[in-house]
Every structure is written in C-alpha cells, then in structure tokens.
Amino acid sequence: MNSRDNGLWKQYWREQRSDLNQQGVNPLLAHWWPSLHLAKGSRILVPLCGKSQDMLWLVNRGYRVIGIELSALAVRTFFDENDLGATKRNQGRLTRWGHGNLTILCGDVFSVTAADLGPIDAVYDHAALTAFPPDLRRPYVAHLCTITPQAQQFLVLTIEDAAPDDAPERIRLVAREIHALYADRFTIELAEVQDIPPEDPDLQEAPSTPLYRKVYRLTALDRSTAT
After folding, report:
1. What 8-state DSSP symbol labels residue 82?
2. Taking 50 as the threshold, does the pLDDT of residue 14 lie above it?
3. Is 50 left (phi over 0), alpha (psi -120 to 50) or beta?
4. CA angle, residues 152, 20, 208, in degrees to nearest 5
5. How far, in Å, CA of 41 to CA of 28, rounded?
6. Burial class (CB in 10 A: 0-12, 13-18, 19+), 164
7. Nearby residues of 5 by Cβ (< 8 Å), 6 or more positions away
8. pLDDT confidence of 210, banded at 50, 70, 90?
9. Contact 105, 66 (CB under 8 A)
10. Is 153:36 a contact under the CB 8 Å cutoff?
11. CA 127 to chain centre
12. Helix (H, G, I), strand (E, B) or coil at 171
C-alpha cells in the first residue's frame, strides 16, 4: 500500500515548509523518554522522521535509532546539516542511509517490512500518526505493529483538535481515536496535555479550533495469557 499523499509530502520538503522543520530537540521527548526505562543499546524506530534532531538526542544517549522518511531531500539534508558522513545503499524499494548507530530508511513507510528493520524495542512517534489523513491512520497503526512485533513500548506525541461535541473535560482524556487504534494491543496512558496557542511558531496558520499536544505512553499487552 502506498499513501496517496506521497507526492504532496515530497513537495512540502522541496518547499522547505517550516512546519516540517522542528527546531532543536522536542522537550516532551527529553522529559518523558526516561520514564520508559529502556536499556542502552535498545533499538528505537522513528517513523516519518524527517530531519528531526530527536534522532541524534536518542543516539547520544546510547540507543540505536532507525528512522523512516519518504523524502530523499530531507534525509540528505539531515546528514549534511549535521556533518555526518553517511553510507548509502539500495535495499529493495528503499534506500538505506547510515552513520554509526543511526539508520534512516528512505521510502514509503508502508513498503518497510519487519525484515528491513530487524528487532525493534520501542517506537517514538512524533506526530507521524496525526500527519496521516484520518482514513489512513488505522492502516498505518496496523502496519507499524506488524513491522515491530517485539516492541513493548510506544511513545506517541500527537497534535489533536477538539471535536465539536467534546466537552472541555473530554479533551484531558485519551482521545477516542487513540483508544480505537491502540487499545486492542496496548495499555494507554495519557502522560501530558498542552494547549497550543494560536501564535505557536510550529503552526503555518492560526487554527480554527483549539489544538492540543498530547503525550501517550503505550505498553504492549501480555498476549501469553490470551485464550
């Protein structure tokens, strides 16, 4: 399966859209990642990674990181801007870039297989889920779980808007969509909710409805007791 929005995503990178260029390390990652208690050397998947500095933050703390990114421009720029001499080779429908404990697979996330990745211990999803249109989110989550069968923990950062029928207190709970997508595989903990002000520099334009950043910690359910 290929995302129908692949061409648009590549165009955004060619146009250097500011909302794709996170400045520095995400403070929510720095705050919440230690709470996962992952051993150094664990293999971390970062889907739709772009040229995020979060990957280097993880590598510098002793983790092995594998990103997935559609845009070759984003991947090449990431290695150039960080003065990282990268190896590069074709891997089926993907291109594998690497430097030390950092690997980025360039290609459609739906083309990546479990064999391409190897064993993954945890997934860091920084708004990759909410970058997809709603009808592609379930296929994305199903595919992500298929290619990371050993992953016990996900740290999922989302950008969510308030549904028209949501009471204010509903916003401070696990989103219905997150529950629908993940509850059959994971326990879900909503760790933090932040209001996003209309003047937030990450936004291309002022939102028409309130927006929120949320941090979810997901822990895989124990399937060994399933009947």
Report:
1. T
2. no
3. left
4. 100
5. 21
6. exposed
7. 132, 133, 136
8. confident
9. yes
10. yes
11. 6
12. helix
